[in-house]
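Question thread 4412

I'm putting together a teaching handout and wanted feedback from people who do this every day. The idea is simple: show students a protein as raw sequence, then show them the structure tokens that encode its fold, then repeat with a second protein so they can compare. Below is the first pair exactly as I plan to print it.
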Amino acid sequence: MKFTEYCPLLKIEDIDANLPFQIQTFQQMRDAIVEHNATPHKQNYIEIVWITKGSGTLVLDLEMFTLQSNSVFCITPGQLHQLREDEDTEGYILSFTEAFLHMGEQEFDLMYNSGLFQAFSRSAGIRLNSEVAREMQEVATKMLKESNNIYLFKTEMLRRYLKIFLIYVTRQFQGPLQTVVQTRNLDLVEKFKSLVEVHFKTHRKVADYAKLLAVTPNYLNEIIKKITAYPASYHIRQRIVLEAKRRVAYSDECMKEVAWYLGFTDIAHFSKFFKNATGATFSDFRKECLVISPVH
């Protein structure tokens, strides 16, 4: 079975065709969660999973995370994932697009200036303290109520509540996550990552992306390393490795098929690249991935 058949892409329209935002409780959508996560899948929207009580597991790009009470997880567009929650699990699932978060806003770029989503990229989940959890519970209750009404400015109210909710989450991160003033640098990093997402199969040199961004390779490397602690080449390589690991784990494609998909014309080169990156051969890695294969 091909990777695209095995790992469908879910779109925000699959959730709500009228509003690019949705909040639901686990109790409300128990059956839908099971159906939605029958197989590993990707989606074109952001999903915040907040477990208030209970347990389960979240497989996120081949890593398995344990769901615990008062834990929050963020699933970003394009991430391959599968959620398995226990029957007594309680909590909320918030689904929204980046456009919804930014709609009509110029003065405050929460996603980039707060570092929230960059932090989630380094640590998939966080634990909330009880005080913050209570505050977030109030906001979640207001979002649920607002999402079910038919009054004017419903969209604006929901967006404001969502930003408040995300600010509470941001405050739980420890370390240097104060508002970042290096807006231009962060903007360059995000543009670079977006380009890597599109071109990683054909563009493997830092110079390729520097040309697209109209900067020098040295400058691009300097900024990327300053913001992320890793050089640009590392991010390019990691994106190729991630796609290779996804296809090994979630399809029956052979090594030659995966190599060709990723632009490797020399199979021996790809084999060496894969082993150096993962520490395992192609076949050994596929065997190891059986432990996170979906339950049917």
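The second pair follows. I'd like the answer to focus on this one:
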Amino acid sequence: MPVLVASDLDRTLIYSAAALGLTMPDLRAPRLLCVEVYESKPLSYMTETAAGLLTDLGDTAVFVPTTTRTRKQYQRINLPGPPSKYAICANGGHLLVDGVSDPDWHARVTARLADECASLAEVRDHLMNTADPLWVRKHRVAEDLFAYLVVERELLPEEWVKELAVWAENRGWTVSLQGRKIYAVPKPLTKSAAVHEVARRTGADLTLAAGDSLLDADLLLAADRGWRPGHGELADSDWTAPAISALPERGVLAGERILREFLRAVSPAR
């Protein structure tokens, strides 16, 4: 039976320059591989060692990139190793099969959102009306499924985020603060639901997962084993669960450690 490995990408396997966390002396810093270019500039990295580990993982398991990114944002990433047959984008709103969104899956997701939670328009209007232009840099809607703000983190009032979370909770939505982005996402829009669908299609009887943010909690809980790095929303709140390992590593070296853990679980003899 194949092993399914579903991993978040940003700040789990790949890292922006600001998130690398290179705290060691310069001469001991790991060699980095750029895995994403945006507007002709390098944007995301992993260590060269992690790139080799990911290649090995792709040869031994069903590796499924699992991200809140839109399809367009995901397709900028050029991960090492064999191409993934399946990828999950928009927090589970799109299931890509050989790079193409499965229309039946997307229709099922959108129908459930319409039945179970407040509309995207209501949430978007609330964000527009309550977020202060002093600290908001961008308002964005992703794939007509959820909304997010790009903010100046140092100016962002903590109480506003808490009030937004309560308001969203009462309407079937959840709020996640990741770096400079505040996400408002419908509760039924989950990575775990899409991962279950991939497991069904592949016949996988073991699922491994990793992630760093609140939006990854359901993914980790749905897996047989999971790992979270020493940074991110989950680490900041000391979140854990029985089958979840909380790793001490932070920054890009956490991505390397996560891939080692995946490989050990897939091939215990390593």
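Top answer:
Good format. For the second protein you could add a caption like this: The CA atoms of residues 2 and 167 lie 42 Å apart. The chain has a mean pLDDT of 96.
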